[in-house]
Amino acid sequence: MGPVTILHADMDAFYASVEQHDRPELRGKPVIVGGLGNRGVVSTASYEARKFGVHSAMPTLQARQLCPQGIFVPGRMQRYVEIGQQVRQVFEEFTPEVEPLSLDEAFLDITGSLTLFGGARQIGVRLKARVLEVTGLAVSVGIGPTKMIAKIASGKCKPDGLLEVSPAEAEAFLRPLPVNQIWGAGPTTCAALERLGIRTVGDLADADPALLERSLGNHGPALRALARGDDARSVEADRQRKSYGEEQTFDRDLRDGIELRRIVAAQAEAIARRLRRDNCVARTVTLKVKLAQRIGPGKYPLLTRRTTLAAAVDDGAAIHRTAVALWNSIKNGLTIRLVGVAVSGIQETGGAQMPLFASPDVQRRTRLNRAVDALVDRFGSDAIQRADSVGVKQHAARSLGKGPR
């Protein structure tokens, strides 16, 4: 295989940027998107808010302390998904080799497009311009000979930047970076490397492989190879999503009752809409429950239950019934602070039509789901809800794995 050129595109402060775009009065102000309650978590902070130390996954209470003048807004996942689809379509204008990492981030193998568009930098410039034209939003672009280098480059040029690292520049680009920039070098690994006197990527690249293997096992030499720019991982354009999920942390602890079951219903419907949008069905339903009894600083017991259905579904009512049955098997008077529903065992349907001889119930549910999807697409997720989820607003965020996992 010859040399490749990989582009990493990452939308800037995506959720917050969408809110600022849709509401011009928020532009230039510290916008913080996420859960608004005492137990909420920050999903995204605008760059104006990041100056105060606010970042994603931070508790909302802490964000309010750091940035009391911040403007806190709830997330609008439906809108973010809509914009994310537009962004994905722009990426595919430049190459079919697109590996989405989340709604707002993807790797593109542009090797086969270099001649067509006049080179890697020209592709980056044109891609940024097209994203801005289509969405009104900025995207940062990193280009390199490997996925890791391209991703590091996009992070280095944020916001609204473009950084190309050629194969000849790769070593000089990597060597001065802190070692935690290497994929797989988490806090524990970095602490172990620090004890060996390894602080930069250059230190890691020059380290004795035998010493690294004694200290970190097979992980050590693998990290050294990445530090030397050796990364054979390719863009996985056909990677299939493994799961879909929604979860919600409550402002106050809940026991079994109407409110909890309505939340589960809303989560099931949101997952089903996403399955139908992606022409997918799922076989396995998982219920996640975090108990309210603290077992350590910021730690709570987590229970999960799952079941596999006889046939794959994309129907919210079926997912809801299954999730409630799982809850009924464990509730026993439990007090909980978080509930989540997820589906896995994903199968693509290819947008197939309803079977000709489907049962009347299946036909009715399919027509109903299509009507609900059409109304939600036109008027938003609050426009219509099933009777068992009326009054419950969705405050869930995608688990990012966000995104494809």
Your description of this structure?
The chain is an alpha+beta fold and 405 residues long. It has 3 domains: 1-165, Alpha-Beta Plaits, CATH 3.30.70.270; 175-227, 5' to 3' exonuclease, C-terminal subdomain (DNA polymerase, domain 1), CATH 1.10.150; 243-389, Dna Ligase, domain 1. Helices cover 38% and strands 21% of the residues. The chain has 15 helices and 12 strands. The strands form 3 sheets. Strands 5-6-1-7-8 form a 5-stranded mixed sheet. The chain has a 4-stranded antiparallel sheet with strand order 9-12-10-11, with helices on one face. Strands 3-2-4 form a 3-stranded mixed sheet. Helix 4 packs antiparallel against helix 6 and helix 11 (209-216) crosses helix 12 (219-227). The longest helix has 20 residues, at 258-277. The protein is globular. The two termini are 27 Å apart.
